[in-house]
Design goal:
The structure holds two protein chains of two kinds. By secondary structure, chain A is α+β, with helices and mostly antiparallel strands. Chain A has a single domain, classed as Beta Polymerase, domain 2. Helix content of chain A is about 50%, strand content about 15%. In chain A, helix 1 crosses helix 3 and helix 2 runs antiparallel to helix 6. The termini of chain A are far apart. Chain B has one domain. Chain B starts with a strand and ends in a 10-residue tail after the last helix. The chains are: A alpha+beta, B alpha+beta. The interface between A and B is large, with 55 and 39 residues.
Chain lengths: ~160, ~60
């Protein structure tokens, strides 16, 4: 399995757009899109829960080349909180209920567009990681908060 | 929704090339598909199934 690349982010963006999937890049992959200079392994997307969006998502995932069985597609449609895909051209985590974010609609309203990629606002990425509170999140949170301040200052100037 | 200005220095395409790496993570990378009803189930699974040094356990 090769590392996630810009071209694959474009493929997600384009396939999801064709199917009308409502989603946001979240987690460290989202922060990297915003300019956070760090490394990560997977792409994480926060997907709006709902039957229509779930069906569009499953179709888009298959279009991207993921080898989804009917059972696995049904799991996505059922609206699990978290789905981890390692059966495609790259690893992808589907998050339907991230810790620290109440509603998709609110995160969507705050989203940032970077080269056509919809990305969670840094405040939401930080809120999610702070609520999750894993060892690896605790390691990166101070730098993420400092980056958020730098990023916000650049936007104002 | 707002648009983010391009970052100075390296373009996004190049930054992504260096930002995403792939290394093998025991257990986590051993199944092609996992689904969890609740985030709490996933967090609990991370704490019990994954080696602690991967950093997925809660503080």
């Amino acid at each position: 399995m090769a590392a996630f690349e810009y071209r694959q982010a474009e493929e997600i963006r384009d396939a999801f757009a064709r199917r009308g999937v409502r989603y946001l890049f979240i987690g460290k992959s989202g922060a990297i899109l915003l300019g956070f200079p760090d490394t990560t392994q997977d792409a994480d997307v926060f997907v709006e829960r709902g039957p229509e969006n779930g069906a569009a998502l499953a179709a888009a995932i298959r279009e991207l080349g993921f080898d989804l069985t009917d059972f696995q597609a049904a799991e996505i449609l059922r609206g699990k909180d978290f789905v981890q895909l390692k059966n495609g051209p790259f690893d992808l985590d589907l998050v339907f209920a991230p810790d620290g974010i109440e509603r998709f609609s609110e995160a969507w309203a705050r989203r940032i567009e970077v080269e056509g990629f919809p990305v969670c606002h840094p405040d939401d990425i930080i809120a999610s990681k702070a609520a999750t509170n894993r060892v690896k999140d605790r390691e990166s949170l101070p730098r993420l908060r400092a980056f958020r301040d730098y990023w916000a200052q650049r936007r104002r100037s | 929704m707002t648009n983010s200005r391009p970052q100075p220095g390296r373009p996004l395409r190049l930054r992504m090339r260096y930002a995403f790496i792939k290394t093998y993570r025991p257990v986590l990378d051993d199944e092609p598909f996992r689904a969890f009803d609740r985030m709490a189930d996933y967090r609990a699974w991370c704490e019990t199934a994954l080696p602690s040094w991967l950093g997925y356990g809660r503080v």
